[in-house]
Amino acid sequence: MFDLSDHPTKAPKGLDRQQTDKKTRELQARLFDLQRLLYANSKHSLLIILQGLDAAGKDGTIRHVFSCVNPMGCNVTSFKKPSAEERKHDFLWRIYPHVPAKGMIQIFNRSHYEDILVPTVHKTHSNAVIQHRYDLINTFERHLELNDTLILKFFLNLSRKKQEQKLQLRLNDPRRKWKYDEADKKEASNRAAYLKVYSEIFERCSPEIPWQIIPADQKWYRNYLIARSVVQKLEALNMTYPQT
User: Fold this and answer.
1) Euclidean distance between CA atoms 244 and 242, whole angstroms
2) Is the pLDDT of residue 177 over 70?
């Protein structure tokens, strides 16, 4: 059984922050070039899935890591509680319109995995329905990859202590208070239940598209790891500019 407690939430001791920040800036410069190549070739697309508990840093990751890319070639979609209209359809109905076109980078701030997590923790759907969703998600992601969409899946691994600090900061800081929701505190009390479901997700979805568990207590280390992974994924395409 996958155990998140085996995975760190902080950078290795002794890692130099200034050197890591420098590497992150170099990776961002490389990402800028790679995005241009991706867009120019329009043969592949990249889907980045960000998951994590409340206050894990999904918004901050997008803001910091992807500040270097051209907005014309990158879209962000945040999946919140399904609307009344979305609940009239199957759970993937709201996902499909946001799948990236060739040449594009698409970032999911939360994703289709919410439709396993929340129903499991709050017991709003039967076990049969939830098990079926695991199978559908695996099929969906394989389908995207067969159609030249690269997929990166990141879980931002935030410690309980850091999560509590960040939720309290939302309440106390006028610049962040707009992000505070009373439901956040209640959901934080379900931390163990959510992590248990995440452990099953990491095992079952999808083995050939592995999850990356990102230590998220320190923004600078989180940003470095994600920037490095995205660059490596795009570099593996060995892209060159198309010939006129």
Assistant:
1) 6
2) no
